[in-house]
Design goal:
The chain is built from 17 helices and no strands. By secondary structure, it is mainly α.
Length: 363
C-alpha cells in the first residue's frame, strides 16, 4: 500500500508540551559531543565546538520553521524516523560523508584518500571543499530558490504577509512550468556569465540542473503517492511511499541549508571532527526545535511565520547564487537577516491576531 490518508494532520491542535521531553536527547548528545572534544582536543577546541553549535542553531531556525510544516504531514511513525534515522543522516551523512563525496567528485580523488585528507590534512581538505564551492552554491541555491518561488507562486494561496508583492506572485502559480522555465534560464545565464574555465562553468550548469531536476522529481513522486494535487490531498497525513518522499524532501532541504555552514565552519577551525561535533550538536537542536514547533502548534499561532521562513529561504538561495560571482557576505549577515525575516513575521502575526481579537470583541 503506497500511502495512508488519515482524517486530520498530526499535531494540528496546539498542546501543552514538555520542553525537557523534547530537548533531553539533544542536550545529552550535545554534552557528550562537547565532552569528547574537550577530552580529546582540549578546552579551546570545546569552546570552538560550542560556537559552531550556537551558529548552526541560529542560522537554521528558518529551516526548523519550514521543516515543521512538512513534519506536520507525516504520520507518528515517520515523525519518529525523522528524529532517529533522520538525525543520523543530518549529523553523519550531510555534515561528514556528503562533503567528502563532493570533494571526491570535484578533485578527482578516491573516497579513502579524501577521508585521510579530512582527518590528517584538514587544511588541504578545506581547500578542496572551498574549490567545490561553485558547484555546491549552484545546486543549493537553485534548490532553495525553487522551494521559495513555488511557495509564493501558488494560485490557491490566499494569506499574504508582504501583501503588495505576494498578491502579484500568487496568480503566477497558474502557469505550471513558469518556475522551471525561470530557473533553467537562470542556470543557462550562469553558465555564460560566471568566471572560471569551461569545465568549471559546465559543473555550475550541471549542478543547477541537478537542483532543478531534484525539486521537480520530488514534486512528481509526491503527487503520485498522494494521489493528486487538490486541497484535500495537501492536508492529509502521509505514510508509506508518500511519507518516504516527504522524508527525503526534508533531508535534502536540511542538506541545502547546511552546505554553507560546513564550508564556513572552516573559517573558524580546520578540525573536521570539531566541526562535525559542533554542527552535529546544532543539527540535533534544529530537529528538536522542529518537533517543538509542531507540538506547540506554533504555525497556527503565528499566521505569517511560514511566510517569513520562506522569504529567508529565498534570500539564502540568492546569496548562494551571488557567491558564483564573487559576492561573499559574512556568515553572520546571512544568518542575521534570516532571523530578521522570522522576527518580523512573528511580530506582524501577533499584531494581526490582536487586531482580530479587538475586532471580535467590538462586534
Amino acid at each position: 500500500m503506497a500511502s495512508t490518508v488519515l482524517d486530520q494532520p498530526a499535531a494540528v491542535q496546539p498542546a501543552k508540551v514538555s520542553l525537557l521531553r523534547i530537548y533531553w536527547f539533544s542536550l545529552l548528545v550535545t554534552a557528550v559531543a562537547w565532552g569528547a572534544v574537550a577530552f580529546g582536543a582540549g578546552l579551546a577546541a570545546m569552546f570552538t565546538a560550542v560556537v559552531l553549535t550556537a551558529l548552526e542553531i541560529t542560522f537554521s531556525f528558518d529551516n526548523a520553521v519550514v521543516n515543521s510544516k512538512l513534519v506536520t504531514r507525516l504520520s507518528p511513525f515517520w515523525q519518529k524516523l525523522f528524529l532517529t534515522v533522520g538525525i543520523f543522516v543530518a549529523v553523519f551523512v550531510v555534515r561528514f560523508v556528503l562533503p567528502i563525496v563532493i570533494v571526491q567528485l570535484a578533485a578527482g580523488l578516491g573516497f579513502v584518500e579524501v577521508i585521510d585528507l579530512a582527518v590528517s590534512h584538514p587544511e588541504e581538505y578545506a581547500h578542496h571543499l572551498e574549490a567545490a564551492g561553485p558547484m555546491i552554491d549552484a545546486f543549493g541555491g537553485t534548490f532553495l530558490l525553487m522551494i521559495g518561488i513555488a511557495y509564493f507562486m501558488d494560485a490557491e494561496k490566499d494569506v499574504h504577509w508582504i501583501g503588495w508583492l505576494e498578491r502579484r506572485l500568487a496568480p503566477l502559480g497558474r502557469f505550471d512550468n513558469l518556475t522551471i522555465f525561470v530557473m533553467v534560464i537562470a542556470a543557462i545565464a550562469a553558465y555564460f556569465t560566471v568566471g572560471g574555465t569551461l569545465e568549471q562553468r559546465s559543473m555550475v550548469l550541471a549542478a543547477a540542473i541537478m537542483g532543478i531536476a531534484l525539486h521537480v522529481g520530488l514534486d512528481l513522486f509526491g503527487t503520485a503517492f498522494e494521489g493528486g494535487e487538490d486541497g484535500k490531498a495537501k492536508m492529509t497525513v502521509l505514510a508509506g511511499g508518500a511519507a518516504a518522499v516527504m522524508f527525503l524532501r526534508l533531508e535534502i532541504l536540511d542538506a541545502s541549508f547546511s552546505f554553507d555552514g560546513v564550508i564556513g565552519a572552516f573559517a573558524i577551525t580546520s578540525s573536521v571532527l570539531v566541526i562535525m561535533a559542533g554542527l552535529g550538536a546544532g543539527a540535533m537542536f534544529v530537529r528538536s526545535m522542529t518537533v517543538h514547533l509542531v507540538r506547540a502548534g506554533t504555525l497556527g499561532k503565528y499566521r505569517y511565520l511560514e511566510h517569513g521562513a520562506h522569504w529567508a529561504i529565498l534570500f539564502l538561495g540568492v546569496v548562494m547564487l551571488l557567491k558564483l560571482y564573487g559576492v561573499h557576505p559574512p556568515e553572520w549577515v546571512t544568518g542575521s537577516l534570516g532571523l530578521v525575516f522570522i522576527g518580523l513575521s512573528v511580530a506582524t502575526s501577533v499584531r494581526q491576531r490582536r487586531k482580530a481579537e479587538h475586532t471580535t470583541i467590538a462586534a
